[in-house]
Here is the input.
Amino acid sequence: MTERSDLAANPYFPAPAHPGTGDVEYQQLYRAGRDPSWVWSLLGTLAVAFCFLIVNAVVAVIGFAVYFLATGVPQGELEDKITALADTDLTTPTSLLFVNLVLILAIPEVWAATRLFNGLRPGWVTSVAPRVRWKWLAVSFGVSILTLGLSVFLGALLPASSDGEELTGGVNDFTTTSLQFLLVIVLLTPLQAIAEEYVFRGYLTQAFGGITAHLWVSRGLAVVVPAVLFALAHGVQDFPVFVDRLAFGLTAGILVVATGGLEAGIAQHIVNNVLAFGLALLVGDITTVLDPQGGSWWDVLLTVVKSVLFVGLSVWAARTMGLQTRADRTVLDASVGRV
Here is the structure.
């Protein structure tokens, strides 16, 4: 581990900020870790991607296979049960549980990658504090709910979506299956949203943002690249749906850089996902949320407007609170290489 005693001469840190505000922006925190930081971040990115795309699914499949066998499922039916877990054409409570668990496993993997590859405490991937800033998280939920209410009002003024698949026009019957869906949504969907934020706005933001010490280039890479990867990670989709998810990723990325942590993006992601699944359970179809077959440019416009409102209100709230948005170099340096 390289000694970091002379912080002022360290090219891996940006120029000093105003006294008392801290010195290192969130997206450049990994530059304080192992040298050369971009090599270790690349290795960490590959490890996180491998776990996120392959290992987690294998672990979840093994877990479900053991559960199925333990509950008396015949071996001849086991393959069909396993195959149904990844069936995007017909979402069941079990398949939704499977998807959520695959994503949630990424949270400890990001923490481990931050420690093992970048040499920093896992808390630094959460915020510049380095920890969850609970007061700011609560405020972010309030801002997200307020923005959501405004977007619902604006959405009522716009033409309906062109696909017409989300809402059926009537309330669905509440059955045992509905209860199972509800339990998965309430208990695991928030964790699934947190996991995606840790991967895309956490590890990837710091990995790409730490490539260069140039502040504005760093910000651009940290926001744009993870947002594109986030949109692509949702699989085959119509272009409006892709743009809608890209807009969401850009919004969350901007907020990470502007506020110095994941809290605002986490709040926005949880509120959006819980609402989407909740509405689908109430008056629609869960399958259309996980695998939308079409999108409307009116929806994209609404997402952009909502995103701009959320960013503006969040930045205003953060400044009003005097939120710490940069890490103190002395505190950061003292934690390098420590658990």
